[in-house]
């Protein structure tokens, strides 16, 4: 979510990214006062427009981290802030290791299509793209499955 007013304001100028297909239409219908744009997160072309960017559980899905961070930094006003949460080193590792084992057992390669860095790997990248890091933490958070593993994979 990109915001061009105080996050506490009743109706900040918000632009949301990263919505799944079909969700965009629902979001527009339910929030007619908000501008929704479908765009490649690694190719953002906003310039000095937003006071803040908030992201929850998205960054680990983006292949081009440099493009993502550069675009966000360019989109932020001089005193703007980025607040993000995403999977880090070890995220859902039990599941991914087991899938890797099961794929290999069948002669297949399990492709990990996400990026789960350590703080030491990610902070230099963040700083290289113009940010000043004031807080970062990597912690274990249990991922509980609603239903079975197939449901989680299909999610």
Short overview:
The chain is an alpha/beta fold and 155 residues long.
Question: What can you see in these coordinates?
Answer:
The protein has 155 residues and is an alpha/beta fold. The two termini are 21 Å apart. The protein contains five helices and five strands. The longest helix has 13 residues.
Brief descriptors of the model:
about 160 residues; alpha/beta; five-stranded mixed sheet; disordered N terminus
- Spell out the helices and strands N to C: EEHEEHEHHH
Main beta sheet strand tally, sense and closure: 5 strands, mixed
Q: Given the C-alpha coordinates, what overall shape results?
A: globular
Integer-rounded radius of gyration = 18 Å
Strand content: 15-25%
Strand order of the largest sheet: 3-2-1-4-5
- Overall mean confidence score, pLDDT: 84
- Please, how many helices? 5
Helix content: 25-40%
Class based on secondary structure composition and strand pairing = alpha/beta
N- to C-terminal distance: 21 Å
Number of strands: 5
Low-confidence residue ranges: 3-12
Lay out the secondary structure.
Elements (H helix, E strand, L loop, with lengths): L1 E2 L10 E3 L6 H8 L4 E2 L13 E7 L8 H11 E10 L7 H13 L13 H10 L20 H6 L1
Parallel strand pairs: 2-3, 4-5
Antiparallel strand pairs: 1-2, 1-4
